[in-house]
Amino acid sequence: MRKLSERVKFGHKQSIEKGVVMGNSRIYGYDKYNGKLIVNEREAEIVRFIFEQYATGIYALREIQRQLTARGFTSRNGTPISHNTISGILNNPKYKGYYCGNKVKIADYRTKEQVFLPESEWVMYKDESGETVPAIVSEELWDKANRLFKARSKEVKDRGRGQKMTSVLSGKIFCTHCQAPFWRTSYSHRLHKEQNIYQYVCREKRSKGSKSCPTFAIYETEIYDVLSKCFVMNLKNLSDYTDKFISFCRAALS
User: Fold this and answer.
1) Helices and strands in the chain: count of H runs, count of E runs
2) What φ, ψ does residue 200 adopt, rounded to 5°?
């Protein structure tokens, strides 16, 4: 088993040294064939739109997501393009024509579980020929959008949270295993394409892979359901509290 694992890692390293594009074939804006990327013009139009809009400095990720949905742009599954996907596109050097490998390592060759590596360990260089990783946007546009993305991310990190809280639960749920906060994430279900499904996942698990933390994702609807039951159990005179709340609201609006 150990020898097989070492052979898999050695083969992975050799492929990177040869400039073979690794990973799956679902790189947005490209089709992959024989270890090389080919521009998918239909998807490339969406990628260019994302970079052009974001580089203006006017639009945030969720606004670009809304614009894409309004224009009828969807993922390959026909679901709305999530803001997490947009974030990943803005951070991927491949779109400016750079080979980028060794971003992940195989933690378990049997399950193919991957662990994300820090940027300092990436193998990255410009594909001057454009034969392996053809650019979809100019290097200038990519750099401008990426500088803006990093500046905004740093601003949010320095504040400790974003300007707009996306949920009243943000910053209030922590992992009992590693004490890290739970991050709010979203995805779209094929049966409910028009509505995002929100869940909370441990930051360490989200960043470093499933083996880093044994906790599991919790649906936001489940949390609200538990909280509502707790309120009902602990408030003996719920109707009185409701009446007081309504009176406060009326006084504030008058």
Assistant:
1) 8, 9
2) -115, 130
Kindly state the tokens that stand for 159: 């504040």
Local confidence band at 10 (pLDDT 50, 70, 90 cut-offs): very low
Q: Name which residue leads in pLDDT, 97 or 194.
A: 97
d(CA 82, CA 213): 25
Question: Which pairing describes strands 36-39 and 98-101: parallel, antiparallel, or unpaired?
Answer: unpaired
pLDDT at residue number 50: 96
**How many angstroms separate the CA atoms of 226 and 44, rounded?**
44
Which pair of tokens denotes residue 128? 């001057």
Report the C-alpha gap between 33 and 29 in whole angstroms: 13
Give 194-203 pLDDT, tens digit per residue: 567 888 999 8
Select the more confidently predicted residue: 49 or 209. Answer: 49
Of 69, 43, 78, 84, nearest in space to 190 by CA: 78
